[in-house]
Hints:
This protein has 3 helices and no strands. The protein is an all-alpha fold. It has a domain at 30-85.
Amino acid sequence: MNGNVPPSVSSTVPPVVPPAPQQQWEKKFPAAISGIFSFLQLVITIVIIGCEVGSILIDIFNATIYVGLWAGLFFIVAWISQASSGM
């Protein structure tokens, strides 16, 4: 080359930083929608467990394998996870 040195970049210009993933998530999926889904999931969890308890009380010997109770635990974990994602 001719010995030309490229001009140096001024140190006063800040580098371009892409937005954090959390900011991108909040733009695409607002917290209000997450809160609505969380509330609906809580209601459905209570209904599932309530129906299973009712089924047990009606006929305890011919009841199901109590799927409403142990599936309700998975719904509770999913509900807590959904509620915390909207914060």
